[in-house]
C-alpha cells in the first residue's frame, strides 16, 4: 500500500486490522510490516524504530529547511521582478518625456529659425531704406 500525505507530517502510529475469512472462518492479521518514508517520492528510506528514526527525522527536517529556503528565494525573486516591472514603467515614462522634450526642442529650433529669418528680413528691409 502506498499513501501520499501531500505534505510533510509526523506520524505517531500505524494501526492494522485483522480479518476473518467468510469461507473458512479463519482469522488473518498482520504480524510484521515494513515502512519506507520519502519526502520527494523518489528517494526512499526504510523506517526502523529506534535505529534510524533520528536520522530519518533529521533528513526530513533538513529537506523542510531547504524547501523553506527555496520559498524565501522565490519570494525574493518575485519581489525583484515587481521592482523591475516598476522600474520598466519608470523607464517607459522617462522615454516618453524625452520624446516629448525632443519634440519641444524641434519646435524651439523651428521658432528660432523663423525668428532669425524674420530678423534677417527686417535688417535687409532697413538696409534698403537707408540706401
Give the helix/strand layout.
Layout: E1 19-20, E2 27-28, E3 35-37, E4 45-47, H1 53-130
Antiparallel strand pairs: 1-2, 3-4
Essential attributes:
rod-shaped; two-stranded antiparallel sheet; mainly alpha; 60% helix
Q: Roughly what percent helix?
A: 55-70%
In terms of per-residue confidence, which ranges show pLDDT below 50 for 5 or more consecutive residues? none
Major β-sheet annotation: 2 strands, antiparallel
Estimated structural class: mainly alpha
Order of strands in the sheet with most strands: 1-2
How far the N terminus sits from the C terminus, by CA atoms, comes to 116 Å
Order of helices and strands: EEEEH
- Number of DSSP helical runs: 1
Q: Can you give a write-up of this model?
A:
With 131 residues, the protein is mostly helical. It is built from 1 helix and 4 strands. It has one helix spanning 53-130; strands at residues 19-20, 27-28, 35-37, 45-47. It has a two-stranded antiparallel sheet with strand order 1-2. The protein has a two-stranded antiparallel sheet with strand order 3-4. A hairpin with a 7-residue loop joins strand 3 (35-37) and strand 4. The longest helix has 78 residues, at 53-130. The chain is rod-shaped, with a radius of gyration of 41 Å. The relative contact order is 0.05. The mean pLDDT is 80.
Amino acid at each position: 500500500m502506498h499513501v501520499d500525505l501531500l505534505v510533510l507530517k509526523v506520524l505517531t502510529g500505524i494501526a492494522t486490522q485483522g480479518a476473518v475469512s467468510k469461507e473458512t472462518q479463519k482469522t488473518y492479521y498482520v504480524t510484521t510490516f515494513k515502512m519506507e518514508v520519502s519526502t520527494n517520492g523518489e528517494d526512499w528510506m526504510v523506517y526502523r524504530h529506534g535505529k534510524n528514526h533520528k536520522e530519518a527525522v533529521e533528513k526530513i527536517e533538513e529537506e523542510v529547511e531547504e524547501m523553506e529556503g527555496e520559498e524565501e528565494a522565490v519570494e525574493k525573486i518575485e519581489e525583484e521582478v515587481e521592482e523591475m516591472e516598476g522600474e520598466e514603467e519608470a523607464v517607459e515614462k522617462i522615454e516618453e518625456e524625452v520624446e516629448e522634450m525632443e519634440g519641444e526642442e524641434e519646435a524651439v529650433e523651428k521658432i528660432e529659425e523663423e525668428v532669425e529669418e524674420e530678423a534677417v528680413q527686417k535688417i535687409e528691409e532697413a538696409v534698403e531704406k537707408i540706401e
